[in-house]
Design a protein that fits this description.
By secondary structure, this protein is α+β, with helices and mostly antiparallel strands. The protein folds into 2 domains: 37 residues, YefM-like fold; 42 residues. It has 4 helices and 3 strands. A 3-stranded mixed beta sheet has the order 1-2-3. Helix 1 crosses helix 2.
Length: 84
Amino acid sequence: MATIAAGEIKRRGITAVDEGLASGPVQVIQRNEPRYVVLNMDQYQELREAYEEAMAARAREALADVANGRARRMTAQQLIDELG
């Protein structure tokens, strides 16, 4: 991942970020700390799609757990009592 200082962006403008984006996401450093990650739209869309698919897979797994009896419904107090 390319890294660029916030001051460099201030001096050179968005061109500094565009150059870094040619090789992937760009990490922006401010006051010697990583602060931001800049993605181009294709990278962002890919990340969103992967996130949405992961959430859908988790939901499918949870529904399968319920359907196969691997989940129980209880109150918080019942769970606390069970855990001791």
